[in-house]
Amino acid sequence: MFELDHDLAQDIVDRTMAILPHNVNVMDSQGLILGSGEPERINTRHEGAQLVLANGRVVEIDGQTAKHLKGVQPGINLPLLHDGRLIGVLGITGEPEGLRTYAELVRMTAEMLVSHRHQQAEQQWRRQRCDDLLALLLAESGDSPRLVDEAQQLGLKPQMARTPYLFELGPGQSAEALSAWLTSRYPDSWCVSSAQYSLLWCRPAAVPVDNPRLLEKLEGLGWSILRVAVGGQADGLAGLRRCYRRVGDLLAYGRDVLPQSRLLTLNRYRLPVMLWRHRNDDALDELLNPLRKVLAKDGNGQLLATLRSWCEHDGQSQACADALGIHRNSLRYRMERIAELSGVDPLTLDGMLALYLGVQLLPQPLSE
């Protein structure tokens, strides 16, 4: 239920008195003066307003009548209505005879201000409630029928298939501003900011997005995007929650292992990210041991660079040699050396997979 407050009442007074050469008072539903051109009268009772509240009609008080009422000056007191409900009183000081011509116009203006402030409050409440609901829906207990029903009533379309993006913003960047930009251009998007420089954007999966061009566009608009992790299509809330966790892991993986990569997709790094989550488990030592043996003898990093290129080119010898700028015979020698040191043959599927996973868990130096 909307009620007048001091700020709104004083705003009505200030706007009105900027035009009228009379003092104006705004009283609440109890007859207490909330705003006035005479500050000393604020928070005092106004008997004229109480007459309006008791009778629900305009009350005119001339100079003679004012002498018999406490805290009242001559003037016109008009009921302030909102959605047909009496919420307060507007008082204009002066002899009624000279005020009648514009008193109704002043009341109409005041009621428009009240309506506008109410709409603002409703919009703010809706935005805040939507933000709260989205956070709850993405939490583990987000399948509550009550929450889902409320989300549907607010137009959030909780069962729509969506693709999550997790943005890591540079210092001083506003997640709220980025959220507003994305939701204005991609209807039915969800945006949730769980940290100061982090924004989760869940776009409708049916809407195609060119990710490199999106990053370029945002950069051109002045946003500093350190990196963004892009998940796959998630159908329903349960799938979206799972994918949200995956893009969180993907972003952390990119920060630690691929510091130069700004755009990371789950389809590209799904398997190494899955292993990276368990990077502190003893079981991964067995996977990394062959690669550690290579690194121990690779003083200039040549073998590791070769192995990275071999994995990036899916074991295609000519493409790998061309990327490294070497002859295929030189490549073959290096691969034989890697097999000798690691005890794993990178030319076999099992060997290539083992070394590939090990390489994916090694942080890439910034100089690469």
Automatic annotation (TrEMBL):
Residues 4-134 form the Putative sugar diacid recognition domain. It comes from the Bacteria. Coiled coil: none annotated. Residues 143-245 form the CdaR GGDEF-like domain. Residues 303-360 form the PucR C-terminal helix-turn-helix domain. Pfam families: Diacid_rec (PF05651), GGDEF_2 (PF17853), HTH_30 (PF13556). PANTHER family: CARBOHYDRATE DIACID REGULATOR. Belongs to the CdaR family. This is CdaR family transcriptional regulator. It comes from Pseudomonas azotoformans.
